[in-house]
Amino acid sequence: MKIAVIGSGYVGLVTGACFADLGVDVVCVDSNTDKVQRLQRGEIPIYEPGLNTMVEQAVANERLQFTTDIAQAVAGRSIVFIAVGTPSSEDGSADLGHVLQAAQAIGQTIDGFTVVVDKSTVPVGTADRVHAVIARQLQERGVQHAFVVASNPEFLKEGAAIDDFMRPDRVVLGLPPGELGLKARALLDDLYAPLTRNHQRTLYMDVRSAELTKYAANAMLATRISFMNELANLADVVGADIESVRQGIGSDRRIGYDFLYAGLGYGGSCLPKDIRALRDTGRQYGVRLGVIDAVEEANAHQKKVLLQKITTRLGEDLTGCHFALWGLAFKPNTDDMRDAPSRYVVRELLRRGATVCGYDPAAMAEAHHAFVHDLADQPDWLARLRLTESADAALAGADALVILTEWKAFRTPHFGKLRAALRQPLVFDGRNLYPPHRMQAEGFEYHAIGRCGPA
Ligand SMILES: NC(=O)c1ccc[n+]([C@@H]2O[C@H](COP(=O)([O-])OP(=O)(O)OC[C@H]3O[C@@H](n4cnc5c(N)ncnc54)[C@H](O)[C@@H]3O)[C@@H](O)[C@H]2O)c1
Questions:
Q1: Quick check: is 18 catalytic?
Q2: How far, in Å, from the CA of 10 to the mean position of ligand 1?
Q3: Identical fold at 2-203 and 222-447?
Q4: Alpha helix segments (H runs only) across 124-206
């Protein structure tokens, strides 16, 4: 089977590499020439555990190629995935510019029956728009090729993307009714067969339901996070421990333990933009989505909670204070800095006059780009930010340690060394990594989220 994947980012590259690993002939396309050249040289432009080896092997086995030439990529391929970005527009709606551009290029190129698959996260109704764009291009070319636009939302998690892709909880396939829909289903079933051999995991539905399923999944996850964050803020003032509460409710099988960690609020490349896009869909159709509104509002508040703890303890004016930051990526095992809480915290610390030294096990290059971009209008703030090559180096002479990402490497530090490196034993933990009683026993003043205030 021969497929093309348009967009070679976190989703497109993982999709292409995994299918190639399963024996499919894959060509990955990207409009970013630099990215494609790096991939052609064997460099993986993102940090994703296991991806390097998988791409290397697939290329060596001549099952995976990279190109910027969409026409060359799409020609002769029966399945074409669209996996380009769908960032937020200024008004919060999903910007479909890249998706529709890809659709146009597909319409200009296809030369036989083609299943076009939206893997990007796109609002309800996008498949119809993609269909219309392709149909118009075919009409302009004066050719008639049958095609189907299907929805196959992706649920992988950055940091565990390969495992999620290869062992999915479910494969959601949204297909149009009729003969062509059935033909597309047969092709996609073949493609996904290696992933569903153990048991049937494919959920077939209509296209709009599949599109909405992706937003519903992310909205549910974001809701759990915001819910726990609100309760953590309450726990802080009533003297309860949110971690005990999490275990207390997680043990209920109807609730479960996942996505109930209190912290700095959700960030990253998906939840924030997808919540905004879902709200926009509600607005467009005149449907009140009060829970979703509240989730976003709670998250916007939560971003500020750790900073409030810092200023309550050290004052609004942080001139002369030096902070060590552990963790810059929006979550562990990725270098993704999109909507990372560290971007807000760093900006606010610098704005208040502090100096900051940050470290992340994987995101140093991405963090550098992100902060240079964010602080382009404030060069004197940027001058007070340094990124270091190790967690220990970040600590030297700091007035406090601030933890922003729950990397495994930060979970069991040598507390004696940590205490010795800091000017005072003060830790602000936005990820609740340590038991408060342990921190107290180790002699730290420990401020976490919803953990009975300072230990
Ligand atoms: N990152 C995730 O964890 C994740 C998980 C599930 C779903 N998604 C969704 O998948 C989509 C892609 O996300 P991502 O994180 O991989 O984005 P990304 O920004 O990492 O990658 C998108 C790629 O598409 C390329 N591109 C844009 N327009 C193009 C065009 N016209 N032709 C060819 N290439 C083009 C860009 O250069 C970029 O390399 C989004 O809709 C996202 O919401 C992401």
A1: no
A2: 7
A3: yes
A4: 126-141, 161-166, 179-196
For the 2-203 domain, the top CATH level (class) is: alpha beta
- For ligand 1, the distance from its centroid to the CA atom of residue 13, given in whole angstroms, is 9
314 lines ligand 1 (CB under 6 A): no
Q: Average the pLDDT over 296-325 and give the result.
A: 98
221 within ligand 1 shell (Cβ under 6 A): no
| Three-state DSSP class for residue 355 | strand
Q: Where are the domains of the chain?
A: 2-203, 222-447
- Contact 371 CB / ligand 1 (< 6 Å): no
Residue located nearest, by CA, to atom 21 of ligand 1:
9
Sequence-distant (6+) residues with CB within 8 A of 404 are: 264, 325, 326, 327, 328, 340, 341, 342, 345, 430, 431
Percentage of the chain lying above the pLDDT 90 cut: 98
Considering the candidates 270, 321, 357, 452, report the single residue annotated as catalytic.
270
Q: According to the model, what pLDDT value does residue 455 have? A: 41
332 Cβ inside 6 Å of ligand 1? no
Q: Whole-angstrom Cα distance, residue 143 to residue 127? A: 21
CATH code at 222-447: 3.40.50.720
CA distance 371 to 367: 6
